Structures are given as structure tokens and as C-alpha cells.
Amino acid sequence: GSNVLRMSSGIQIKTKSAAQKSKLCSPESQPKPSDKLNPKTIDPFRAYSQRPSAFAATYARGGIPCRLVHGSVKHKLQWESPPETVPFDPLLLTLAEGLKETKHPYTFVSKEGFKELLLVEGAAGKAIPLLPRLVPVLKAALAHVDDEVFGRGLDALVQLSAVVGPSLNDHLKLLLTNLLKRLMDKKYREEVTVALQKLEHYGGKVS
Predict the structure, then answer these.
(1) pTM score of the predicted model
(2) What is the CATH number of the domain that holds 139?
């Protein structure tokens, strides 16, 4: 009993509508009696999908060393240890994976964590060796149908470019089709144009 309450009380308010929505969508998924014994079933972040994403699972396990702190005006991240002491491999890749999330708090944690990790001293040296693995992950965010996911991917790409500079150039051709596709969309034209200008600025000429 008390364990269940403890887990849910902190996040009850925020997720009420999500829980209601999921009830409407799937009347046939009645909880099994055995679910009562499993505290995981009351985790509201699982309301949408049966299997949590890799990022959500890592976050739940405590594998992401930062947490969302609710501020009255602005949310911020709290790191368990200073970000400069955290290994980029695998955390930068995990956070990049998290950019594809569409649920709170993962959306905030991945976006903000990615940004703050790249701000640490010596970030370039740590990020450059990861580019071959990082760029395909960013590509997945840029190819995502969700506009917000695309926006987060675009921001992350520009942040990465600012840190690693010309090292990113060889990898950009992997991403250009995704960027050009959104460039055709009026809604995104300006944002993508600005991003491409920044990529060119940080990377020297992009051919």
C-alpha cells in the first residue's frame, strides 16, 4: 500500500489527463488482478505503451545521472555528480536517444542534459570520437514525424556542431535529406535555414 502511494503521489497532479486519455483510448486493456501486486503498473509514464523505450527504462533504473527539478517559473536539471565527471560514452548517446521521447519528463531531461553535457570543459574531445554513433541517433530525431522531436533534434545538432566544429562535416550528408525535407515545409523553413547557416559557420563551408 504505502509504496504505491509514495510512487504516485509526487506525479499524480501532472498526469491525470494522460491517465484519462489512455482510459478512453483503450477500454479493452483491463488491468489483470496480478497487476495490483506490481507497483510498476501504476507508473503513469507507462500508461501509453506497454514497453518503455530504452531511454525511459534507463531513466527509471537511475542510469541517467540527472533529474528534473520543478521550478515555479523554469524547470532545471539537477546532476547527481558534476557533468564534467560523467562519461560521455554512453551518456551523450543515451541523451540523444532521449530526444525522440514525446513524454514529460524525458523530453526535458534529454534536451537539457544533452545541452549541458556539451557545455563541459573538454566536451569536443569527448564528443568527436562518438560522432559515428551519435549522428545516426540524431538522424532518427530529425526524421521523426513529431514536430517537437524534430525541433529538439535540430537544436541538438546545432549545439553539437558548435562544439565539434568541422569534425561534423563528414557526417552531415547523412542528415541533409532530413533537413532539406523540412526546409520545404513553410512552418520550418526559417528554423532550418538558420540551423544550416550555423552549421556552415561552425563547420567551415558545408559542400
Answers:
(1) 0.73
(2) 1.25.10.10
